[in-house]
Specification:
Elements lengths: L3 H54 L15
């Protein structure tokens, strides 16, 4: 049969583990929130770039000079 001291120690160990687990979950949650904000920002930038490309393509014919590689 377990001694009261053993049970107390096991309970303390479980409380410590629960505390570390809670801290880890909080940290992971903060990381997910930051990553989602970054994904949202990058998505808005992508939409903006696509709109700029569509506007540039609709601007009429482009000069052949614009098509030359940069080393010419």
């Amino acid at each position: 049969m377990s001694h009261p001291q053993d049970i107390e120690q096991r309970l303390t160990d479980l409380e410590v583990k629960a505390s570390f687990t809670e801290d880890l979950v909080d940290h992971l949650n903060q990381t997910i929130v930051r990553q989602q904000a970054q994904i949202d920002r990058l998505t808005r930038e992508l939409v903006s770039l696509r709109e700029q490309m569509a506007a540039a393509d609709a601007g009429g014919p482009r000069s052949l000079r614009d098509e030359l590689p940069p080393h010419y």
